[in-house]
Specification:
Layout: H1 3-15, E1 20-26, H2 30-47, E2 50-56, H3 59-68, E3 74-78, H4 86-94, E4 101-106, E5 122-125, H5 130-147, E6 150-155, E7 158-163, E8 169-173, E9 176-180, E10 184-188, H6 191-197, E11 202-205, E12 209-212, E13 216-219, E14 223-226, E15 231-233, E16 239-241, H7 248-255, E17 260-262
């Protein structure tokens, strides 16, 4: 079987996969956990999703379990907990996991700004309203589906799959493009061809780079600073999205709205 035949089989299999969510709730109040559990199960039934739900009464208990198994998709975290608080816990998780969707549940609006540091998807204020939680969980699932998108590379006799969210940037050098992810891959291909395969989270910088917006830490009129310390200098008008269509995520990035909250 040729590489492209194997690739087609993989794509067909992924299209047929049932969506599963592995969700953790962390709150030091048993009553609050029970309430959120009930709402999550109602939401999952309405969305016809298969859900694995785990609950923890402290950040320490969650982090102990997380050391053994790190496959959570969505975290519903209380902020005010005895011992390690929810924000500190989220920072520990973000050190090695950029894709998990973090939703803070709190009774205190003064903590909202801290969510920017851990790229929290949303804040929900206690008491949590059913429709608000359902809407945020729907958003989390959409982001999960986006994170599951893959870039497929045919490198000689090897087929490589790279999750979009792992890609920091692509850089062209003559007739070759280097994909900078957890590893680096060099492919004889044009940047324009990669633009068609990637989605709207990637921006074209001049003739040489495609960057993942999630990896951008600071932008000035002529400079883009990436999370890995790389600096790209370019004219202001050289930045354009890699696809013609816009997206809510890009608009949020342009407006500086990385984290939302409901009152």
């Amino acid at each position: 079987m040729e590489i492209h035949d194997i690739l087609n089989v993989i794509l067909e299999t992924e299209m047929k996969k049932t969506m599963r969510c592995h969700i953790a709730i962390c709150d030091d109040e048993k009553a609050d956990i029970s309430y959120i559990e009930q709402l999550v199960l109602i939401w999952a039934k309405k969305q016809n999703l298969e859900v694995q739900l785990h609950s923890y009464l402290s950040a320490e208990a969650f982090l102990f379990a997380y050391e053994e198994k790190k496959d959570f998709d969505i975290l519903l975290l209380d902020i005010e907990m005895s011992g390690i608080d929810g924000v500190t816990m989220a920072k520990k998780i973000r050190q090695e996991n950029e894709s998990v969707q973090i939703i803070f549940i709190t009774g205190y609006s003064e903590y909202i700004a801290e969510g920017y540091e851990v790229a929290a998807l949303h804040y929900l204020m206690k008491p949590v309203k059913e429709e608000k939680l359902f809407a945020v969980l729907d958003r989390a699932v959409l982001k999960m589906q986006t994170n599951e998108r893959m870039l497929y590379l045919d490198i000689g006799s090897e087929m490589v799959r790279i999750p979009f969210y792992e890609i920091r940037y692509l850089e062209v050098m003559k007739n070759y493009v280097t994909i900078h992810a957890k590893q680096e891959y060099v492919v004889k291909k044009t940047l324009a061809e990669f633009e068609k395969e990637l989605d709207e989270r990637f921006f074209r910088l001049g003739r040489s780079w495609l960057i993942n917006l999630k990896m951008v830490r600071r932008v000035t009129k002529t400079e883009v600073h990436l999370a890995d310390g790389r600096l790209y200098r370019c004219p202001e008008d050289s930045m354009r999205p890699s696809t013609e269509r816009s997206s809510p995520e890009i608009e949020e990035y342009r407006n500086g709205n990385f984290c939302k909250t409901d009152r």
